[in-house]
Amino acid sequence: RSVVYWMRMADLRGEVRDNRALARASEKAVQDNVPLIVLFVIVPQDYVAHDRSARRIDFTLRNLRSLKERLKELHIPLVVQTCPKRNNVPLFVTEFCEKHGAKALFANHEYEVDELRRDIKVIQGALPKAMQFSLFHDKCVVEPGVVKTKQDKHYTVFSPYYKNWVATLNRDIQRFLEEAPLPQPNPEHILQSQQFSPLFAVEIPPGLDGFELDEEHSSRMQRIWPEGEKIAAKILEHFLTTKAQASRLGAVHPFDSDAEKTDTHSRAAKYHNERDRTDRDTTSRLSLYLSSGVLSTRECIRAILRFNKATKLDTGNSSGGVRWAQEIAWRDFYTNIMTTFPRVSMGRPYQEKFADVVWEAHQDNNGSEANVDSDILKRWKDGMTGVPIVDAAMRCLNHMGWMHNRARMITAMYLTKDLMIDWRVGERYFMENLIDGDLANNNGGWQWCASTGVDPCPYFRIFNPYSQSTKADPTGDYIRHWVPELAKVNGPEIHNPSTTTANKLGYPLPIIPHNEARARALRRFKNPGES
Ligand code: FAD
């Protein structure tokens, strides 16, 4: 007999604290005096279908390896197995439970449509009647469906959602932030039994076919994005408390000894003023740890409260990381939107009126890119558009698998409005390359920029990439770092090099003049269906 905790790709946590399903599974195992087994199922078909990046798969495997070691100290086996066909997952998990005599299966919710359908299949069909499957809300601070209007409707605009989110959280802060206990060790003698000891020997594959990284790429990812809960906790603490100006752009992590200069305030303390700057290390860079569940969002809020010596989130105080909590709320908001309007995660625009906007290049119903002028799309992907801020951001993504939020907005707006390329094409490219790819956040961000989402940027508010560049990168350091052709350009020209300078330095000329592109976008959004 046993209890099984089914760990999913977004809850790679168990070492430090706060994994709800794991904690409850452990309690149940202790109560029934049976061992706890942790199961992780690799489903390559899912990763292909969901455009998972090789970087994210690599990060997942690295975390599983470190978790396996930690759980072994508690005599808890972490068994990583591969189920080649995604439709077989419910049966695969059920058979695993049956084989190990599990009467109880625990997991945290995954809110994406395919994953919800899979869990329903487990409940309705696969599991034998005598077996109990318990699911927990773990991804968000305030779980989806809780923050609603007075009329019991879901919010589709962020500001009122956020106001109510803070009020809801503050009203019952103990419950929302309650820390899930660490798993209890399995009794040693049980695991020495013939049935369980082989589970410790199951190896985690070194990599997955189709998702390999070459050696240089893999060590770069390890250097920029080290795995593990302790690291994530350290990054969080550093963001909130340390006055050291963080890393050199994109080279190392904030707490690394390479920190260049010191400042009088931590990044969290300056976040409300500086968060839109790409030329400084102004944000936490925790998105990867949050989207893979290595760090819990609840812990982020707890840390802000600890830092401010507060018992509630005081939104009147914009410094001290409280403004940062608003970003965590955006994350809850987009997950809430995805669960409420699942069509957004199935390639549909939230604003159906924009479903017929004519794109220069779009994604057809099979998900392949149709009508794409491959050269133009390739230039965006490669960071060769001739618009320095766009190129810097895209090269940053290609190098480190991450981009600053403002840079994501500028590049997404440029693709959808200046190049008039379907947001779904960009959404996919981001997922395939981001290490922090998260369906709800990525879709929310892309639909915001394409003006098709909930609470979007209105279609007539088209970013001018050059003026965005002067605000996001006032020193030009971000561009100079990522676009070495322009490293010697000083002054305002860095944002929009003249034809002479560009030709001299071997930098491309812009694909299309911004004013011309803007007029085309306005025309097409005003009259969907017409070109
Ligand atoms: P911080 O500024 O330190 O924010 C803290 C945390 O809050 C982030 O780690 C993230 O979890 C959350 N957050 C911040 N901004 C947002 C936002 N606008 N929406 C939702 N959550 C937010 N975020 C992802 O995690 N995965 C994605 O795949 C993703 N794709 C995006 C695509 C586009 C086009 C846009 C415009 C935004 C996208 N975002 C995505 C949101 C945001 O850009 C990143 O979360 C942020 O840049 C991560 O850096 P950070 O951890 O330093 O953020």
Structure characterization notes:
The protein is of the alpha/beta class. It is 46% helix and 6% strand. The chain is built from 23 helices and seven strands. The strands form two sheets. It has a five-stranded parallel β-sheet, sandwiched between helices. A two-stranded antiparallel sheet has the order 6-7. Strand 4, helix 5 (113-126) and strand 5 form a beta-alpha-beta unit. Helix 4 (89-99) crosses helix 5, helix 14 (322-340) packs across helix 19 and helix 16 crosses helix 17 (405-418). The radius of gyration is 24 Å and the shape is globular. The protein starts with a strand and ends in a 5-residue tail after the last helix. 46% of the residues are buried. Residues 245-260 have low confidence and may be disordered. Bound molecules: flavin-adenine dinucleotide. Flavin-adenine dinucleotide binds next to helix 12, helix 14, helix 17 and helix 19.
Question: Brief overview, please?
Answer:
By secondary structure, this protein is α/β, with parallel strands linked by helices.
Set out the fold topology:
Blueprint (H helix, E strand, L loop, with lengths): L1 E6 L12 H13 L3 E7 L1 H6 L4 H20 L4 E5 L6 H11 L2 E7 L4 H14 L5 E5 L21 H14 L1 H5 L10 H4 L23 H10 L4 H13 L25 H8 L12 H5 L5 H12 L13 H19 L21 E2 L5 E2 L3 H9 L5 H13 L4 H14 L4 H11 L5 H11 L15 H8 L4 H6 L16 H7 L8 H13 L5
Parallel strand pairs: 1-2, 1-4, 2-3, 4-5
Antiparallel strand pairs: 6-7
The structure holds flavin-adenine dinucleotide.
